Amino acid sequence: MTNPNPLLLCCTSIALLSLSIKSYADIDVSQPLPGSICYIPPTVPLDTPTTTNNQQIAVNSQNAKLVQGKQAEFTGDVAASQGQRHMQSDRASLNQQDQILIAQGHVRYQDKVLNVKSDKIETNLKSHATSISHAEYDFNGQNGRGSAKSLQVDPDKAMAMEQAVYTPCPPGDESWSINASSIHIDKNRNWAVARNAVFHVHNVPVFYLPYFSYPISNKRETGFLYPQFTSSSKNGFDLKTPFYWNMAPNYDVTLTPREMSKRGQQLTTNFRYLAAGQEGELDYEYLPNDRVNGENRSLIHWQNNGRIGSHWQLLSNYSHVSDNNYFSDLGSLSMSSTDQLLQQGQVNYRDATWNAGLLLNNYQILGSTHAPHQVLPELHFSGLWDTGLGSLQVGLKGQMSNFTDSDPTVYTGQRYHMEPTLILPLSIPGGYLNNQISLLQTYYDQNTKGDTQLKTHVSRTLPEYRVKAGLNFDRNLTWLGNAYQQTFEPQVQYLYIPYKNQSDIGIYDSAALEQDYFGMFRDRRFSGLDRIADANQVTAGATTRFLNANNEEKLRLSVAQIFYLQPSRVHLPNVSSTANNSDRSALALEGDMNITHDWFFHSGLQVNDDTGKVNKGNAALEWHPTKNKLAQLNYRYGKPNDGTLSDEINQIGMKVSWPLRPNVHFIGSYYRDLYLHRNIESILGVQYDACCWAFQVAFQRSLSTHYEANGQTDPLGEIDNSIHFQFILKGLGFSDDSSTYRKMMNSGRLPYGHPFYLNN
């Protein structure tokens, strides 16, 4: 057996010993615990006299003995108040010179924070500093109780306890507690420190900590987050022990040591920053000498979004992994699994008239698929000006791009594009008519690398004319006894671009675009500029909406179709052009409906009305009766006949999030590939919430892509079975921790998605 890394074992041990030391940076306060789980009874005020300010003191008792200016003795049902501080006792004495009040017997003390039972309390009426002996305490309005041999209260700064016990559990529940030689709470820092602490579970000592600290507010503070336990067929026993370091108000880091019994020790670093108008994060994951394949494995991910002054913007999105199977083997805390990792940087300039930018673009493609060309660099710009001639506008777009490739045998080139435009927008209250004329001028200087289909120099000039018109109608109606406003919004577009043979131009950044309802009204069929499809076509479409009396959109239906006056002859290489021979496109339909206040439905279809067959489709039905109850059934289908899909898709899935009892929450997820007749992913999870602790367990069975040594994809994929555990202790922050079941909903390869687009 390989000897474990001592440093990692040390970090892991500390984290295990401090399961409850949780940074509030990880708390979702939007999900309070149900009241039946942890009921906090209201504080019953002590029956004491009232005072008008914090300096006055009022005392009631059965007997009193006063020595003017020196001493006062009170006996029999003594009740005293000073502002918000109240006390009851059997007897009390007041030193009038030092303003020291001492209460003894069956003493009860109450202020805006604490309720205390004791046998002796000494308080300074000037400084309000209070010393309490043999105290039994609880906190007003929140979980937290315990005892202390001595308790010192400074109302403005701190509270200190000696020989103290603390638990967030209600009376009668001894699930867990901390016994410490001292607990010191700094109210200015909202931070507590415990020394020589012994953690007890059901009054049984479990482990010892000489020192630890924890937050008492929702501020971001340094500390261990809850560890995560997983056991899977790929990695064996898997333990993550994240540590959050609040380095400064504008940057922090989370370090996550990870121990995998089959693979070894991994360290993940997540650094976040806000500085000089920049916002971003840098992630690095490193696994030295993977025990399974003997390789060092790593991931780096950097995102940045920032501004310099009022006009300049800096953007970056860079990701890289050490090998093809990194995500399928190890997953990632930093980013979701993908087979294309973007490596991009941008500098943009923007003012009222001009937009300009410099772009560097590359991809890391996992597997044997050839990566797209690198864009090193691209300069692009656009501008729009009013001419002063009515609503006529002049626009200008352009770009200069340099395309390279890591493969020396693949063609490369430079592209120069200029696009002047005249735009005449016309509008009336019930409609619009927009006219646009453009001239598309593109020049390529290509290094063909022996590709006989390409030319070294290519100049392409294409005019484009586009006119789009729309009307807006509305009416009031009654449907099923309810009043609605219905809109009807037809629109039509004519687009003309002449044909030009472009087969002598390489494909650098062009791909087929989706022809859904919104795609029907684009002026391009392909992204990029390497192929500009000829067009002589009319697009017709309409949308209708139903809005209730509260102006909530309850139903939206849209339909559109392109009618080709001439078939388009330009297509991408290796993509069939048979779809372009029809006199019309597929019929695109979109629908969203809020059936009742808690039922939602969405559907999108692309139907070939010549054959009646569906090219693409998706549907989702969701029941969402309350914030923590959700059930969704979804389906998606697609054929790779238009270049936007590489494989056929035929999948059905479901998501369920449902409380079985006030303190038991169930999560279920199931996705199946109907084309390949196999499960893609199944998740079954349960979270149990008690008042002062919670436990989460999830079983997961998922299909992952596996790449062979030659970069080819294993057609059967790999099935990974895993079980995840998380034990959550509540209360060290003097605030209820929230339920974390929603994190399970967003876990796995297919997280929950909200597919409904109604404007509510």
TrEMBL record:
It comes from the Bacteria. Keywords: Cell outer membrane, Membrane, Signal. The keyword Signal applies. Pfam families: LptD (PF04453), LptD_N (PF03968). InterPro entries: LipoPS_assembly_LptD, LptD, LptD_C, OstA-like_N. Residues 296-663 form the LptD C-terminal domain. Residues 1-25 form the signal peptide. Residues 59-190 form the Organic solvent tolerance-like N-terminal domain. It is found in: Cell outer membrane. Component of the lipopolysaccharide transport and assembly complex. Interacts with LptE and LptA. PANTHER family: LPS-ASSEMBLY PROTEIN, LPS-ASSEMBLY PROTEIN LPTD. Belongs to the LptD family. Together with LptE, is involved in the assembly of lipopolysaccharide (LPS) at the surface of the outer membrane. This is LPS-assembly protein LptD. The lineage of its organism: Bacteria, Pseudomonadati, Pseudomonadota, Gammaproteobacteria, Celerinatantimonadaceae.
